[in-house]
Amino acid sequence: MAEPLVKKDDDRDDEEIIASGSEASEARSQFVEDNFVFFYGKFVVLKSNNGVIVVPPSCMVDYSPFMGIEKGAVLQEARVFNDPQLDARRCSQVITKLLYLLNQGETFTKIEATEVFFAVTKLFQSKDTGLRRMVYLMIKELSPSADEVIIVTSSLMKDMNSKTDMYRANAIRVLCRITDGTLLTQIERYLKQAIVDKNPVVASAALVSGIHLFQTNPEIVKRWSNEVQEAVQSRAALVQFHALALNHQVAMTHPLAVTNCNIDMESLISDQNRSIATLAITTLLKTGNESSVDRLMKQITNFMSDIADEFKIVVVEAIRSLCLKFPLKYRSLMNFLSNILREEGGFEYKKAIVDSIVILIRDIPEAKEGGLFHLCEFIEDCEFTYLSTQILHFLGNEGPKTSDPSKYIRYIYNRVILENATVRAGAVSTLAKFGALVDSLKPRIFVLLRRCLYDSDDEVRDRATLYLNMLGGDDLVGETDKDVKEFLFGSLDVPLVNLETSLRNYEASEEPFDISAVPKEVKLQPHAEKKAPGKKPSGLAAPTSGPTSAVDAYEKLLSSIPEFSGFGELFKSSAPVELTEAETEYAVNVVKHIYDGHVVFQYNCTNTIPEQLLENVTVFVDASEAEEFSEVASKPLKTLPYDSPGQSFVAFEKPEGVPAVGKFSNLLKFIVKEVDPATGEADEEGVEDEYQLEDLEVVAADYMLKVGVSNFKHAWDNMGADCERVDEYGLGVRESLAEAVSAVINILGMQACEGTDVVPSNARSHTCLLSGVFIGNVKVLARISFGIDGPKQVAMKLAVRSEDQVVSDTIHEIVASG
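The line above is the sequence of Coatomer subunit gamma; the predicted structure tokens follow.
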């Protein structure tokens, strides 16, 4: 190892050491104690008690000053907060370490957190500005309880009225973070004064606090409209932006509360700060009335060309909401959307506009023909294949229902001539839809489809051939009108992965492929038993080739057992549910097989102990908490050698066609025999033993198959309202709208359609579309509208359509009881 270079300086009392190797390591250790570093040229300079240590940066790459610190040691250091003579620098270092631990996920017990909190409050007596800022951070991170907040409230309120602006701003933020509604009414006057404070940092702190407080105390924050209006006119961009952000949040749920700010916000549309201008526009679009729509559109038109696409998307979504709010203004708003659709912009921006036009067409009948015409003009010069195909698909569904369908044919056939293969194929399908629904257009459609037979792409040619055959072109005998329309407009009610697997397994023969035989639910591997580490799956535990073989394997296995052969057709098999922890002596999971009048539990067992052989393995099931179930059969496992998975079964009878639910306790019972490791032979005599397993539940979702539909609106309309039931429910306090949506989907066990299971961030309302097949092979569709009503209170409107009114009512009962 090279010797360190030691350089003497006659004018200084200490030494500079260019450290390497172990010296650098010592320097790092010293740095932990002194916590003092600065940079000099290409070197990192650490100040130590013995002098100044200069370390090459390469030695510091993987180094953290907090490396190796422990919670217990830091809590001991926190006693420095109680010293009569406070060392501000040392206290700041300890708080830094505490904050580091908290942000790394370290948890403090209630006692530890309380002791640290009370110790930190003593630091208010220090006049050190830097330490005070650290105290504010620490109090926010600790989130004290209501009893503890009282201790620090007086100190924070004193700082709120301090002459030091930094104290005032931070005290406001902290106090609003830890306070409850009772204390908020006491400090409301101070907060309203702070909103109009001359110092922008103080005003901004109060406004940001208002944004957070609105989630829990909206009624109080709504009363600040006059002060917020004055803040909107502030010369400080920071204050303007936060005032607009607060207005926008209030406008999302209480638009009338901020209408007095509209005139001031209109003047901000031309603000040079485009973030402020965008926020002003979107807030005005939320709070504006019908008479102000045209004026707003004129102002926004000049504004759109100056902002980035991400801001334009926000404006487009706000305009869509405004149009749905004032449907009589659809002409001016639709014209605005069509104009900006022709301008330059990226994919996401154009997609947002197209989506908005499609929604307006669906929700405002009068806007249909004008909206379709705007979309037709757009695809004449559209550079995005995805948008062109989506518009063609939508045009094929809606165009034939207009007063003059023929005017759209030119736009569609232009795509066959001018576009790439993907768009050409979509255009052929759209032409076929017009031919199927509009008899007067059939001859013209046949001519156009025949031209497509000579296309260079095989997909385009195949589609043209198929549709000519179906529609009866070229003197062919076509399918019936009902079959054609079902094929062109019906939803594909089988998962594509299942259809693909079935087609791959189909062997050409005189018997045609039967799509009705394709499984409707994607199922996991049927035998997911745990295996000992390092061993390959064997026998029934081997992976299956695909969804179809998984279903077949279950049905074949169960039908081979005489006790279960009379249960009828298997409706559904669940994914395996683990009943043991990982790395335990015995690994057990269970698959729930659902029949119309029975439920069979298949316990997949694995013995992970080489020195043991298990015999007469059975699961004793206690159904005392499942009153509607009665045990009718069980099939024990004769032997269970080491790492050789086996199955034990227990069957229950339940009311036929009823989604009975309940909890089952499980106890694994067996005879264990010792195995000689040398010979592999087991003892003749064994010992009875048992092993407690986790509880198992049968829930309502077990009676629902996840079966999606490709076109929910079409499926919903075809289902009809004969067996529809609509009701509203309160879901209580939820962490977020996304959490509420996920919970309802899980309770029902249905398939989310068209990506509606994804909730946009910060959304306050959302519509979820669900599809499934209920036990008894009854198709079910659900349209659920969610909304935030009050502080984190989620309300839900559930509309269910099915082929049986009893099933529609049952879905509502499941939600009401869940």
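Note on the example: The radius of gyration is 35 Å. The chain has 30 helices and 22 strands.
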